[in-house]
Amino acid sequence: MRRKRRGLATSLLALSLTLTACTSGGGKEAGSAFGSLDREDKGTLKVGYFNEEAFYMQYGNAFQAMFPNVELEVVSTEEAMSADDPVAAMESFIEEQQPDAVLLTEEQYAELAKDGKLYDLDAAVKQDKFDLDSFLPSVIDLLKARGGGKLYGLSPSFSSQALYYNKDLFDKYGVPYPTDGMSWEEVLQLAARFPAKKGSDNVSLDKVGADDSLYGLSLPMQTRDSFELIREIGEAKGLLYADGEAKTVSFDTPEWKAVVQSVVDGYKSGSISTVSSQGGGGQGGLMIRGMGGGKSTFSFGPATMRFMSGQAAMTVDGPMLMNMMGIGGVKIATATKAAGSSGGAVKAPGQDVNWDLVTIPTDPSQEGATGSMSLDTIFAINASSENLPAAWEFLKYANGEQLAKTSSKSSPALSARTAYKNEADGKNIDAFYNEKINEQALLQEDSLPAGFAQSFGNMAADQIDQAVKGTQTVDEALKAIQSQGQDLLTKALADEAAE
C-alpha cells in the first residue's frame, strides 16, 4: 500500500547546498539570492513538466499574465517520468536540459536532494515570509524528512488513505460503525462480524452484483499481493522487518506472528478479500494516469467494485474512490452498460451506496503515524539555476493560495492548504488530513538497498499464500520468510557494495 521511499540527505549535503546557495546566485548570499520579481521585470524561466500543453493550462497562462515580461520555456519530462529508472532518468534530464524549476515525484525529490541537485528553499521562505503554516503540517514534515531535514520543494497537493465504510451494511448486520483513530485489530474484529460469503475475485465490470459475495474488508485497489496488508499493519505498530544498517531481517517474532495470524485468519474466513492472481484492481476497468505524468495509475477494477457495488463493508483507499462515487471537486464518470441491455448508460456503481469514511487504522503507540501519505506533485528549483527570482516566483504561484482556491473546485487531488479542502458533501474528508508521517518506516526504507523491499514482498506473499491455502502453518511461513528474507538482504547489500 505504500511505495518505495529512499534517500535522506546527510549533514555533508546540507553543507554543500549552503555553499551552492552562496555562489549560484552570482555570488549573492542565500538570503538574497532569490531577489524579488516585479510585473515589469524581464527574465527567463525554463520549466521541466511532463507536458507543455498541460503546463500552460494548469500554470503557465496565469503565471505569464502575472509576469508578462518573463519568457517561459517548457521542456517535457514525460520520457524521464516513464523510464524504467525514473530517478536516474530525471537526474540525466536535469543535467542535460538545466531547467530552472521542475516537477518531481517523491522518489525523485528525495534522491535529487540527497545528491545536491536541488536548491534549499529555507532562505527564500524566510525572506518572503512565505506562510508554511497554511499547509498541512504532515506535508511539510514529509518534504523535510525526504530532504534530510531541509525543504527543497513544495507540493500543492498530497495523497493519503482513509477507511471507507458502507453504513447500510453495518446497520443491516448490527455492527457498530468504525471511528477515527481505531487500531487495525479493532478494524479486523469489525470485519469478522460480517457473514462472509466468498465469491470470485474476477468481478466483471459489466456484472456488478451478479454474485452474493460479501467481505468485511476489501483490500485497496492498488494492492499487489497478500503481504501488503501485513506490512501496513506491522509498520503502523512500529514493527520493522529489516534493517539495512544492521544487515538483519527480523520477521520471525511474536509481534509479527500476531499480525500475520490475524490477517491469514481473515483471508481464510473470507472476512478479508484476497488478492487475485492478476493483482488488486488491475483486472480491466478504468486506468487513470498519475497527475505527474509518471507510471503511477489509479486502477478501477474488481477491488474497487467490491465496495462500490455493496459487496464489501469496508475498504482502505485514497480520495480517487471518493470522486468515483460522485463526491469531491471532480466527478469522475464511471457509468457502465447494464449486462444484456440493448444500450444506454446506467447509473455509475457506487452512486447509491450510503457511505462515509474515518481515518486509516493506526496504533495507539504510534500516535496517529501512518505510512499512507505520499506526494506525487513536488515543485523544486535546480541548484544550478541562474534564474532564481523567476523560479521562486513560479513555486510560490504553483503552491499559492489563489491556485489552491481554484483547484479545490476543479481537481480531485487533496489540497495541501488546509483552508481549501475539497467539497465533500457532508462526508468526513478530514479523515485524509489527520495523518502523521511514519518517520521510523521512512528511515527503515532508506537503509534498505534498492529493489530489496519489492523482492522481499514478493517472497513473503508466496509464503503467506501457502499459509492461507493450508499447505503450511503460520509458524512455518514466518521461519521461511525470515530465512529467505535474510538471504535476499545479504545478497542485495553485497550487490550494492559491488556497484
From TrEMBL:
Signal peptide: 1-21
Keywords of the record: Signal
Gene3D superfamilies: Periplasmic binding protein-like II
Transmembrane segments: none
One Pfam family cited in the UniProt record for this chain: SBP_bac_1
InterPro entries in the cross-refs: Bact_solute-bd_prot1, SBP
Keyword tRNA processing carried by entry: no
The protein's name: ABC transporter substrate-binding protein
Organism, scientific name: Paenibacillus glycanilyticus
Phylogenetic placement of the source organism: Bacteria, Bacillati, Bacillota, Bacilli, Bacillales
